[in-house]
């Protein structure tokens, strides 16, 4: 399933690029890019599901990451012209205009440019995170050690702040409310966020939600 999505992404982008000089319209290019983006994110989710398998099969992991890297670059390049599109039904370019005439990024509405940047960053960050997570030394050993050390240091700081806030003196309750509790909240949110970011269930669900949003 994941490999089929990879092949599908290549096929869509290559066939679309070949047709640029044959009258492909702006609207058609935008649909092509959206379909390829869907395939790209689906394959990234599949890589996450296969993480344990790819730990032990380095050859399969290597060629998939190389192919995914090439597809990600093609995807980002294909997204660049969409910064010119803006609202296709309100201003130029019109949906029926030739896409080959709008390959270079021009002065465009902010929403179109921001949408292109957000889509490109989603692909780039998703690929970089897969490279990290599919290498056990990076995702388990190095990151695991960093998390343990950071957790110990953070808890040591919280203990010191707690002792200072609960020590005898004026404004004891005020110090506890304004210093210790905000720091504790930051620590818990950061720890929860990092745990969720490395969670396979949350990763797959987030990719599925993103895919549904672009359909």
Plain-language structure description:
The chain has 215 residues and is mainly α. It folds into 2 domains: 2-134, no CATH class; 141-196. Helix content is 77%, strand content 0%. The chain has helices spanning 2-18, 26-49, 51-56, 58-79, 110-133, 136-166, 172-197, 200-214. α1 (2-18) packs antiparallel against α2 (26-49) and α1 runs parallel beside α4. It is elongated and about 80 Å long. Keywords: Membrane, Transmembrane, Transmembrane helix. The chain crosses the membrane at residues 29-50, 62-83, 110-128.
Write the layout of secondary structure elements.
Layout: H1 2-18, H2 26-49, H3 51-56, H4 58-79, H5 110-133, H6 136-166, H7 172-197, H8 200-214
Helix pairs in contact: 1-2, 1-4, 2-4, 2-5, 2-8, 4-5, 6-7
Helix and strand content put the structural class at: mainly alpha
Number of helices: 8
Radius of gyration: 23 Å
Oligomer: single chain
Amino-to-carboxy terminus distance: 19 Å
Mean pLDDT: 78
Gross geometry:
elongated
- Poorly predicted regions: 206-215
The total of beta strands comes to 0
Measured by DSSP, the beta-strand proportion falls in: under 5%
Compute the number of structural domains.
Answer: 2
Summarize the structure.
With about 220 residues, the chain is mainly alpha-helical. The chain has helices at about 1-20, 25-50, 50-55, 60-80, 110-135, 135-165, 170-195, 200-215.
């Amino acid at each position: 399933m994941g490999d089929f999505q990879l092949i599908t992404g290549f096929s869509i982008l290559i066939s679309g690029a070949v047709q640029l000089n044959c009258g492909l319209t702006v609207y058609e290019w935008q649909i092509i890019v959206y379909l390829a983006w869907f395939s790209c994110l689906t394959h990234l989710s599949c890589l996450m599901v296969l993480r344990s398998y790819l730990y032990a099969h380095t050859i399969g992991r290597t060629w998939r990451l190389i192919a995914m890297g090439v597809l990600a670059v093609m995807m980002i390049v294909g997204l660049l012209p969409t910064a010119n599109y803006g609202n296709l039904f309100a201003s130029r370019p019109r949906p029926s205009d030739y896409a080959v005439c709008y390959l270079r990024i021009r002065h465009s509405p902010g929403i179109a440019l921001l949408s292109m940047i957000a889509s490109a960053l989603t692909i780039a960050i998703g690929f970089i995170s897969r490279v990290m997570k599919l290498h056990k030394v990076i995702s388990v050993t190095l990151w695991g050690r960093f998390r343990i050390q950071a957790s110990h240091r953070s808890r040591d700081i919280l203990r010191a702040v707690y002792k200072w806030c609960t020590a005898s003196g004026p404004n004891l309750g005020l110090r506890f409310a304004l210093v210790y509790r905000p720091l504790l909240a930051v620590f818990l949110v950061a720890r929860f966020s990092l745990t969720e970011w490395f969670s396979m269930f949350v990763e797959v669900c987030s990719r599925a939600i993103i895919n549904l949003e672009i359909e």
